[in-house]
Amino acid sequence: MLDSIDRPSGEPTRQSTSRYEFLEHLGSGGMAEVYRARDKELGRELAIKLFREGADSPFDELRREREIQLLAALHHPGLVEIYDAGTFDDRGRSRRYIAMEFVAGRSLAARIRSGILTHRQVADIGAQVADALAYVHSRDIVHRDVKPDNILVTDDPAYGYTLIAKLADFGIAQFVDGSRFTNHDSVLGTASYISPEQARGEDVGTPSDIYSLGLVLLEAITGEREYRGAPLEAALERLHRSPVVPESLPEEWVQLLAAMTLDDPAARPTAHDVAATMRDFIRASIIASRSAGSGRRARRSRGTESLPHSVGLTDVAGQRPGSMRFIALVAVGNALIGLVIGLLLGLHVWG
């Protein structure tokens, strides 16, 4: 299905294949390169994940094949969907590929670099990623690498959210029963976001993903990565101190983020509970926004109506009651002035 393609250069490749036309090199990872491509059979854009030639070890090969099988079995709105997989000959080299959904947006990491997100946007992202994790966890799978770079965000509102977030890259996932996709002695994950149990080299379960998501949401809402520095330093720092959740955040956010990043995995909330709590935050945000809008409209109304009880009422001459009262008062005043003048003239004549 695939012919040879140009080496990634950041520019669109001129090569085409029997089915896929490569349009743009999107990025590179430790095991693969990713291209934006067009499916000439179906006329849609997609992403091609092209694995590097030759596996470094049997564990890497197993990891690649397990990722393909795993992605093919998962179907959820919060996950990047796989369409096709295969192998092709690239100038005499056998290369494996995955054709998957193209998400026309940016990574959460890029969004954070461009500026702090609103609380509502963070809640929208958190609810969707937690929902996706709940689905994955229900199938006894741990992602193990939840980080801003692996969350893709688009500005298209849907499903009641102001933006759409999708969780990607299951390359180092594992089953809860301990069957790993990688060397048993390795500690995989991104140092700034791994859980304490990952840092200690222990077996991890679904609560590890919750800890990582907590760090991701904390970074999204503050704009600052909690554990920085060299990989080893960042990994070990969480063993000496808990994440600092700013007390300036709303109390409900402080409580949730603190619970998600507890050192004890058993004490952390489930992905389902996190998603439900995030949706509560979203509902509260909508209600507050509506109440604020109603208050502003009411204030504007009070500022433009001096006599609210008479709005819409007119007399037979088309005048508002307030205007009629003013006219009547003017008439009475004129009559009184005339009476006074008449009395003064009368006194003058008689005098």
UniProtKB/TrEMBL annotation:
One Pfam family linked to the record: Pkinase
SMART domains attached to this UniProt entry: S_TKc
Positions of the UniProt region annotated as Disordered: 292-314
Domain Protein kinase: 20-282
Keyword Nucleus included in the entry's annotation: no
Enzyme class, broadest EC rank: transferase
Positions with a binding annotation for ATP: K49
Keyword Electron transport: no
Transmembrane segments: 326-350
GO molecular function, one term: protein serine/threonine kinase activity
EC number in record: 2.7.11.1
Protein keywords: ATP-binding, Kinase, Membrane, Nucleotide-binding, Transferase, Transmembrane, Transmembrane helix
Protein family per UniProt: Belongs to the protein kinase superfamily. NEK Ser/Thr protein kinase family. NIMA subfamily.
Protein name listed in UniProt: non-specific serine/threonine protein kinase
Protein species of origin: Leifsonia stereocauli
